[in-house]
Amino acid sequence: MSFEQRSIPTEDRISSFPDHIICHILSFLPTKLSAATSILSKRWNPLWLSVLNFHFDDQTFQDFISFRHFVLSAFLSRQMTLPLQSFHLKCSKESSFQLHDINRFVYAAAQRQIQNLNLEMSCTNLQMSSRIILKLPRSIFSCRTLIVLHLKGLKVNDLSHVAVAVDFPFLKTLHMSYILFESIEYFVQLLSGCLILEELQAEYIRVSNIEWLVSQEMFVVREKFRSLPKLIKADITKSPFLLTFLLTLFCKEEAQVLRAEVETRYLNYLKFPNLTYMELILHNHQREKWKMLLETLKSCPKLQNIIIHEGFRSEEEVVDNWMDPAITPECLSTQLRTCLLKGFKCTECELQFAKYIMQNSKVLNTMSIKIASSVDINVKYQLSRKSASWTRASSTCKL
């Protein structure tokens, strides 16, 4: 039996694409790989320099000297008049890179009307703020065209060099992780310069003088806060609780999505009239925690989805007594669609809270309870049987 051999097409279809299509394809590659296409032909030689994204990672270079040379060569070879939409700089070899070099790279991007900046710096143990060694580059404050800013592994210990005030007039998204602020005032100064910020994500934020915040001077700092009237989404985790408390002051009016770790004593400060999604990780439980949580729900009349994590508890279990509130939160009567309770220990107050939600949420679709792994299996089985008979205000509610 003979088989007809299929011919393999040899036509270079990619090269037949227009330049702007090829540049778009190259934009998905790290810049080092994008530059490697310049050897394909004379036509391909200059195309990588027209890509609107620069993505540099020093891990792909033998040493930082060759990495620095490549980054600077890329900027020098590119036309100054050609805008640069995105610049991602990842430096992992902390023993080699210098602030002076990072400043030069960021300044070169700022001259090209950069819109998206991602600075990802290394530190040996990211959970130890003492290992964050690189200062926030001064040249970042010349990037006034930024719309998106990602910062990781940096130290903010002096903003006195900023001539008038921090000013990012177009910044809508700010993500910060493993950032060490030498003073809460620098944190306030940075956020206060982002007046149209819509999305804030903060993870592992540290403040050196956090003990100072406990004093009355904390309230003086609060007076310096400028509100963030456009903030829609705030995601604040793995950060000191006092810092979380301060952050809640920034998103009073327009916030629609909130995810935060918070001590229960600060629940009374969570008042968001337009919030539709709230995820809370509760720590250091206080007496009347569930009562305070219901008060929070009263301050969120448009809430549709809520997730509550039972976080860290002190060794002494807080004794609490449940009492149905006199007024049912508006969100339960008209808005709440889903409720998820995680880390459930099956205490009496937890059960009363879950029953209250089901009995008063008229449009609830789903009530989910995830019991902590430490709870005895027999207790879990008994709850499963009892909860099946709980009264539900919504005929469509599934438990």
TrEMBL record:
Q: In terms of domain of life, where is this protein from?
A: Eukaryota
Q: InterPro entries from the xrefs?
A: F-box-like_dom_sf, F-box_AtFBL13-like, F-box_dom, FBD, FBL60-like, LRR_dom_sf
CDD domains for the chain: F-box_AtFBL13-like
Q: Which SUPFAM superfamilies match?
A: F-box domain, RNI-like
Domain F-box stretches: 17-58
**Where does this protein have coiled-coil stretches?**
none
A Pfam family assignment: F-box
Q: Which PANTHER family match?
A: RNI-LIKE SUPERFAMILY PROTEIN
> What is the protein name given in its UniProt record?
F-box/RNI/FBD-like domain protein
Q: Which species is the source of this protein?
A: Medicago truncatula (Barrel medic)
